[in-house]
């Protein structure tokens, strides 16, 4: 396997919460899948923390993908955020699920994800790996 991109993103939770609370905002609907919205809304009194860390994950995926393209942003339309979904496996571990054009452009990609919160900061790190043909890295 070959690492083809690394992405890191930090989000200030309180600033993200302010943006979500703005009257008329469509950010949640336009940036998070129905599954992500259900998960975040189910997190009790502070869903902004869950939304913020998922936003950081989406940004980290885009940065890792862009670095795999020599720093050119992926061409997947005006709103790539619904194409990148943070899901949890059976043990509650977060992982990335790609949809649409993102899946088409990265069909073999293995995406490693780490999320964290500390105080007013949420962060995500993504490592994008290409397994190559038959599990062997391509040149």
List the helices and strands and how they pair.
Elements: E1 2-12, H1 13-21, H2 27-31, H3 34-41, H4 47-68, E2 84-88, E3 94-98, H5 100-105, E4 110-118, E5 121-130
Antiparallel strand pairs: 1-5, 2-3, 4-5
Helix pairs in contact: 1-4, 3-4
Polypeptide structure, described:
This protein has 139 residues and is of the alpha+beta class. It has one domain (2-130): 4'-phosphopantetheinyl transferase domain (Ribosomal Protein L22, Chain A, Alpha-Beta Complex), CATH 3.90.470.20. 36% of the residues lie in helices and 29% in strands. Strands 1-5-4 form a three-stranded antiparallel beta sheet. A hairpin with a 5-residue loop joins strand 2 and strand 3. The protein is globular. The N and C termini lie close together (11 Å).
Query: Can you say what the CATH homologous superfamily is?
Result: 4'-phosphopantetheinyl transferase domain
Treating each run of at least 4 consecutive H or I residues as one helix, how many helices? 5
Class of secondary structure makeup: alpha+beta
- Bulk shape: globular
- CATH architecture designation: Alpha-Beta Complex
Query: What is the straight-line distance between the termini?
Result: 11 Å
The overall pLDDT average reads: 87
Which class in CATH terms?
Alpha Beta
Order of helices and strands: EHHHHEEHEE
Share of β-strand residues: 25-35%
The largest pleated sheet is described as: 3 strands, antiparallel
Strand order of the largest sheet: 1-5-4
Low-pLDDT windows of residues: 134-139
